[in-house]
Design goal:
Helices cover 47% and strands 20% of the residues. It is α/β, with parallel strands linked by helices. The two termini are 39 Å apart.
Length: 311
Amino acid sequence: MLLSVVIVNWNTRDLLMRCLRSLQTARQALPAGATEVIVVDNGSSDGSPQAVAATFDDVQLIANQHNAGFAAANNQALRYARGEFLLLLNSDAEIVYPNALLVLLDALMRRPDAGAAGPLMLNTDGSMQSSFGELPTVLDEWIGPYWADFYAKPWGRFGGRFWRERLEQGKPFAVDRVSFACTLIRRTALERVGRLDEAFTFYSEDYDWFRRLKDAHMAALFCPHAVVMHHWGASSRQRSEWSLRQLYRSKRRYFAKHAGVRAERMLRVGLFFRFAARMALTIARCLFNRPYASQSVTRYWLLMRDLGSAP
């Protein structure tokens, strides 16, 4: 088995169907019987597992009775996967360029020192999405996530002109991390680094895994000529407030694990002042848009309150 594709789904039936159809096309570029697809459904209530079973008889389906979380669900499939290479693919992603799998596989085959590879991600309007980056620092989180990417990366306000030539060349290059919405992993790298850390309920499991990959002195590759479209946040939008709170809890857990207790405490201080400043600005908006401001104040209050609990 050359390639195992792992897809975790929670209540994104229509997007999951589109994802699986795009995979059918992409798999045609690979030898017959060289790929397997495993879908883990996390207790969906929208008929997702029934739709998969009725439409795709070559897909292995694991139907959980409850939402086990992103990391745990991926690990369920990874324990059964037989491929030499393993593709973690979001249910809200589509392989719009059928050669994307070949490009990712070729990149890892040519670079034995690389443990993972990721494609260029597109938004549904065709614009570039955040596809790679550096691992976060406490300072990044104090200022605000992705602030540097917003200006310096090819999808940022000023970065496009500087990155255009390199992207057009299409040569894979090493980065700290790629998007877990679509990441190809070498099996030997997974065996060396380990599976996803299930302590991360939602978010930052990718930062954690790529941190461990880097610590193992293995590279992650970004492949500009592999292109995948991603309907960003299709699952998280269904529980937006819960997702936001989990986002910052997971960030604190990441720093506590990889940088120590002192770094996590510094992160807490910075986040407190950041949330407090945003809450103050939101309160000032009450004169113009009271319902919106009221919801936002509550959100920032909950985020500040969470900082008093363990990550």
